[in-house]
Amino acid sequence: MRVNNCADRSRLIAAAMGKEACDLTIGNVQFFNVFTGEVYPAEVDILDGTVIRVRTEDEEAIIPSKSFYDGGGRYLIPGFIDSHMHVESTMMIPENLSRAILPWGTTTVCTDPHEIGNVMGIEGVKFMLDNTKNGELRQYILAPSCIPSVPGKENAGAVFTAKEVGELLDMDGVIGIAEIMDFVGVYQDTERMHSIIDEGLKRDMYLQGHSPYVTGKELAAYRIGGPISDHESATAEEVTQKLRTGMHVNLRRSSLSGRLNFLVDGCRDLRWKDYVSICTDDVHAKDLLTVGHINNVVKLAIEEGLEEKEVIRMATLHAAREYNFEDLGAIAPGFVADIQIVDDLRGCRPHAVFASGKLIAEDGKYLGTDKLDRSRLSFPNTVNIPQIKSADDFVMYVPEGHTGDTITVNVMTPREDNRKLRTVVPTELPVKNGAVDISGHPGLCFVALVNRYGSGDTTIAVYDDFGLDHGALASTVSHDSHNLTVAYKDPEDALKAARALEACGGGVVAISDGKADVLELPVAGLMSTDPCAEIAANIDRVQASIDRISGGKLHILATAVMSLPVVPGPVITDLGLVDGLTQEFIPVFL
Asked: In angstroms, how far is the first alpha carbon of the chain from the final one?
């Protein structure tokens, strides 16, 4: 797939032959050639956003360019490509994301809008497509494959079948099918997943994978089923096995997952790493403001022992080849002029960034002329919770007919080695006034998963060692259905949290001493129209409240993956407790 397929090829040829002046020459740089691994002094000529020539120092331009940019002896590398991310997780709308990450050197992102798709259906995806046009960042969208992630185990705001996926694949700017996370459905060859994948195969489009803990015969079946990549490996052995299978593996560092060491361990000693690229997946605005984007993953991968040039190649050429972008990921004749000038090759903030040959950022400052116009943006309130009428709706009543003073509950408990994953521990708890009583167990809290699309479904469970000391933490950022998740000790605090998010259209709220501190995300309960710095300041404010109710133990996205039924182990959905690996329900009461 050629990105710059509308270029005037005759004009570009004439410029290469010295018959026409280029727009820009970038010189006085140490050029890193991602094809050969060499670093050498060079000058790069650019016309109409396309690289014309990369000249060594002894090759002068036949006709001087109209302008010259002095790189100050720094390194010249391609713009970074994020091979998998969710814009919604940044809490920004696409145009504000563009202004936030271009100064960090990311010039292309491949995004999965299944978050807003779960909330608003095709109309939500169309908004993301349209809004990308208001920024300079190149944003490609993939059609969400699993809405809901597992049918019959949760309810979302929409349902995508092969028909809806096919409709999206035929839209301009959509380049494939997004993370195919119902991995069980793929290797068991269910009709739903087979038909959805068929829509991509018959259009010869990219099929993105998602297959945690999938190995052996199941991995072979999953790869045969269609998906070609994975960003969800959970062990080094998984990384190695997937690369041996011919899958692309994305080294991921997100706001939800800080560990990169085992991913690096899985590919470190392999002779060829051409199928390894880099992604961020879920990174919120505060992290983008302070540590950056793909550059931060590059930095961390190098710190884990990978060689600098190889990691830069993963974040540029490898990602482009994964998506079959023929003219992205390198600086060479005919390639799009997405370029960074950097002080070193270790993931620093760029000195300058060019997008399609245009200077778009310098010294961390965005230079684009595009401006946010809030007057053209209008969004419905998507938080509809008629089932919540009083605090009584957050009381965990025992089953009708139970007469004992205690009851055995399947308590959700995080694993010691990975707190994103859980197990259930049968625990005998007191019964008081017909309800489960956790007052004598300070390590326990309640978790309620409230359907926010009007179905009236709610599940209440008990969670051990979550980290909540008092008050409540609630969020409509609950992958991937984005129902309302509330962690609490006291039902009154849970009610206040629910009402606060219902009023503003969603977001994250901390209840401390009966008072609500809200991060408002009115765009589908996932995003704000505020720019990155303002969202980051609001994240800081709400995080400070969360620190007060948890003793600093909880992150603002602590509940975000508690309800995702494609995560191995028990999760909570609006329909009950579900084992993400077997996709079977687990009884709340034993």
From this structure: 54
